[in-house]
């Protein structure tokens, strides 16, 4: 079955033409032969069909919603860590709370997404929304209002200490400012209530921000290390930018520039992407956006891009839980070893190849137990000798009285 949402063959054919048009404009490479281009097109079509099928299967997956929610609720930092090289959980630098930050352009829906995620775990369905959302009734004017100016920490669920989401200030149109902001968060950590000021902020905005900071009071003294990053993008804005002229493609260029910032990746793991406002698009367009972002950002559109619309239904809850599980698994996977263990491993890896045979021995708990016991015995022997020298009397030997013994 081809990618498309209409039932008639004519509409299917029209949808396929749009899909092939996407391939021709976005995937064409002059260095590819016709056969390679055709193979890439077929592969992309198969991925598109796989994404379309995933939307159809969401209804059946709601049957396991309670089990998936229980899995997330049972999570504790480090509980999903991938233990390699005989390392134990105690060998890793495990945080008290796993911190995930949401990053994205203005009006991408970060605050709304936090409210939607929090609602999945709410016992009281009438509880007020937690994150402040800037209301704008026009999708054509996404830059109205100041948006989020302070970093906000939200424990998920409320009162839990397992993991949290940080709502952040939107990306700037200046890529240098974005790199500077992301570098600060990823190297220095994030702090609840911290005011985010950019060089490009106007004087009036700075005045309003400082006044809000004055009324808000002091920020938290606790600075948390970021454990993983989730990019949030507006699906409607992405689609609009795709079809725009070259000079109007700023939205997708802003996303690609910030996403490729080296600070937001964890080793080989790039951030996850959440596409919002899908309720404004047809199913085909939602597939189209995910395919485009997958190609643009070099990530899997099926396993690393999650379509989470603003609707409240069990199908959306399933996707939210899938996204959280993927983010938490990657956060645990990339937990660093404790500083002492890290320095020891770096030292061992600099040794000749023959020395690497003893690496498992150094990672064994029995080895360290014997090492401590041996050091204790050695210290005891040294201390015993020192004490003996202090308390034993020194005796002078009178050689003239025992001459007969050694002269024979």
Automatic annotation (TrEMBL):
Keywords: Membrane, Transmembrane, Transmembrane helix
SUPFAM superfamilies: P-loop containing nucleoside triphosphate hydrolases
Keyword Transmembrane: yes
InterPro entries: P-loop_NTPase (IPR027417)
Transmembrane region(s): 367-387
Keyword Nucleotide-binding: no
The protein's name in its UniProt record: G domain-containing protein
């Amino acid at each position: 079955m081809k990618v498309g949402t209409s039932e008639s063959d004519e509409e299917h054919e029209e949808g396929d033409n749009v899909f092939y048009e996407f391939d021709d404009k976005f995937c064409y490479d002059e260095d590819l032969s016709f056969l390679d281009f055709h193979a890439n097109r077929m592969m992309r079509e198969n991925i598109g069909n796989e994404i379309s099928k995933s939307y159809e299967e969401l209804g059946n997956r709601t049957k396991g919603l309670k089990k998936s929610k229980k899995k997330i609720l049972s999570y504790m930092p480090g509980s999903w860590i991938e233990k390699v090289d005989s390392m134990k959980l105690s060998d890793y630098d495990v945080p008290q709370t796993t911190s995930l930050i949401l990053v994205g352009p203005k009006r991408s829906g970060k605050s709304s997404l936090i409210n939607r995620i929090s609602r999945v775990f709410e016992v009281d369905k009438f509880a007020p929304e937690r994150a402040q959302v800037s209301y704008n009734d026009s999708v054509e004017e996404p830059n109205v209002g100041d948006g989020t100016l302070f970093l906000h920490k939200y424990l998920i669920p409320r009162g839990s200490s397992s993991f949290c989401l940080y709502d952040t200030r939107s990306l700037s149109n200046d890529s240098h400012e974005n790199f500077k902001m992301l570098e600060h968060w990823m190297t220095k950590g994030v702090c609840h209530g911290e005011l985010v000021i950019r060089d490009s902020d106007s004087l009036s905005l700075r005045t309003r921000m400082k006044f809000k900071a004055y009324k808000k009071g002091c920020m938290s003294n606790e600075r948390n290390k970021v454990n993983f990053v989730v990019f949030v993008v507006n699906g409607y804005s992405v689609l609009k930018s795709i079809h725009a002229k070259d000079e109007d493609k700023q939205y997708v260029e802003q996303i690609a520039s910030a996403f490729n910032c080296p600070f937001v990746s964890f080793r080989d793991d790039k951030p996850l992407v959440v596409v919002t406002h899908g309720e404004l698009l047809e199913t085909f367009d939602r597939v189209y956006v995910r395919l485009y972002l997958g190609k643009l950002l070099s990530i899997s559109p099926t396993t690393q891009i999650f379509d989470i619309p603003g609707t409240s239904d069990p199908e959306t809850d399933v996707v939210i839980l899938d996204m959280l599980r993927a983010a938490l698994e990657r956060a645990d996977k990339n937990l660093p070893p404790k500083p002492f263990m890290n320095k020891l491993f770096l030292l061992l890896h600099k040794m000749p190849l023959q020395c690497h045979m003893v690496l498992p021995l150094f990672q064994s708990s029995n080895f360290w137990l014997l090492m401590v016991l041996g050091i204790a015995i050695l210290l005891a022997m040294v201390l015993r000798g020192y004490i003996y020298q202090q308390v034993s009397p020194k005796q002078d030997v009178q050689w003239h009285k025992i001459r007969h013994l050694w002269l024979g």
